[in-house]
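Handout, section B. The chain below has 123 residues.
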Amino acid sequence: MPPRKVILLGCEFLFNEELGSRLRGEGHIVHPYDNVDDLITRLNNKRFPAQLVIHDLTHDPVGGVDTIKLVVEKNIPILAIGPHKDTQLLDKARAANATKVIVNSQASKSIETIVKELLGSEQ
């Protein structure tokens, strides 16, 4: 059995519960983060190093687009999620070098497939 991957998840509560539950079902360890300070603490956790961050661009407590830069600096892949109608926000996430940018409906439909793609050969 391959080692379980640690995923940090910053979303509003219901989305966090939906995505977290599905990713745990795939065998991942999922740690939600509630704000930027919490994310920084989790990014620096040597015992449970994160292999992926999933970040809701519209959930203000987790810092929006600026938080992407924190994750990119740590060389950890980041999946940014936002509303399909806010193309400017999605473009800002791409410009901030998010590994992948998707809309909410894509996350709801295909989070398992997208995570497998991002983790690549590490799966």
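Note. The CA atoms of residues 11 and 61 lie 9 Å apart. Compare this with the example in section A.
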